[in-house]
Amino acid sequence: MTGRGRVCAPLFILGGLLLAALGHAGDVREVGFVERFSGEPGDHRILRGGQAIPVAVFAPLEVGDRISVRAPGEQLALRVGGRLIELTTESEERVLAEGPEGTLTTNLAVWVGEWISGGSGPDATRIALSTRSVALAAPSWGEGPALLVAGTRSLRLVWRGGHPPYAVELQRLEPRGGRVGAWSVEDDAQLVTPGVELLEGLYRLSLRDAAGGDVTLPLRVVGALPKGPVDGDQPLDRTLFAAWLADRGAGEWRLEAYQRLAPLRESYPPAALLADALESGVSIPTRP
Fold first, then answer.
1. Which class for 118: exposed (0-12), middle (13-18), buried (19 or more C-beta within 10 A)?
2. Which of 9-23, 41-55, 77-91 has the highest mean pLDDT?
3. 151 in any annotated domain
4. CA angle, corner 206, sides to 201 and 212, nearest 5?
5. Which of 7, 108, 147, 273 has an alpha carbon within 20 to 30 A of 215's alpha carbon?
6. pLDDT value for 200
7. What is the mean pLDDT of residues 49-62?
């Protein structure tokens, strides 16, 4: 088999998985997405029909969008038709036109497929999400009540902003209320807890900083995950399942999805990019 054949086969399979697992159906105008940006969202501009579109990692791009970088020294990277397009203030305004760029689903398939087949793919270590938030926030936790699966397990928690040191506490509300664990974090806005026993029931996860800021998340621990369209233990299978899970309902599975992506981020760039999207509060665009 030729090198091109070896590449096309996994891309074809991956494209089918993405279409089936992530539920895209006819995103005919979407031709790419924002892969990363530096600085703040307001340092960049996406105009669609004369209206400004929020700049965020994984934000879908459509035909006719006018894209530019407004702040000196900042960069904006787009993934269009499997190609990486990097813009700076020295770049001319980019207008996305009709053409062979392909749909958003196709672009995601090409992007992940390039990496698993040994192509260039994205360099997850170059992703620069804005971290200048002042207010304490934990977008990857999702909106409560969040859902987690029962068992003895470590929890991977990340947040942004606020003023260190931080205090994290997990309490069981019912049945048998009481403290499950409490941890102090001196500087880094992240925590991997030791194994904690999560029994089915209601919980409260709280985060406080030195300035009095707080984030509180009600939790419900359930017996099992919902049955998804992807079943397997390979990094690709696990990443696709986590993306599907994060997109369920009103985002109640977002924290559980992050638990499944975080262990993969050092070795599997697609999982790293999805984890970064959850950390920044971006909804993974698995549906048009």
1. exposed
2. 41-55
3. yes
4. 160
5. 273
6. 96
7. 84
In a domain, 132, yes or no: no
Enter the tokens of residue 112: 């992940």
**Boundary (domain end) residue, out of 222, 245, 274:** 222
Give me the pLDDT at residue 79, please.
83
Pairing type for strands 214-222 and 146-149 reads: parallel
Task: Quickly count: other Cβ atoms within 10 Å of residue 65's Cβ.
Answer: 22
B/e letters for 258-276, b = 16+ CB within 10 Å, e = fewer, are bbbbbbbbeebbbbbbbbb
CA distance 6 to 13: 12
Residue pair 279/254 in contact (Cβ under 8 Å)? The answer is no
Collect all residues with Cβ–Cβ distance below 8 Å to 214 and sequence separation of at least 6. 136, 206, 207, 208
CATH number of the domain where residue 151 is located: 2.60.40.10
Q: State how far the Cα of 113 lies from the Cα of 8, in Å rounded to an integer.
A: 9
Last residue of a domain, one of 176, 202, 222: 222
DSSP state of 126: G
Residues 13-32: tens digit of each pLDDT: 334 434 433 443 343 356 78
0.70 cut: is pTM over it? Answer: no
Is 71 among the domain residues? yes
* pLDDT per residue as tens digits for the range 208-226: 999 899 999 999 999 999 9
State whether 52 and 7 are in the same domain.
Answer: yes
Residues 110 and 163 reside in one and the same domain: no
Quote the domain boundaries for residue 29.
3-126
Give pLDDT, residue 83. 76
What pLDDT is attached to residue 30? Answer: 66
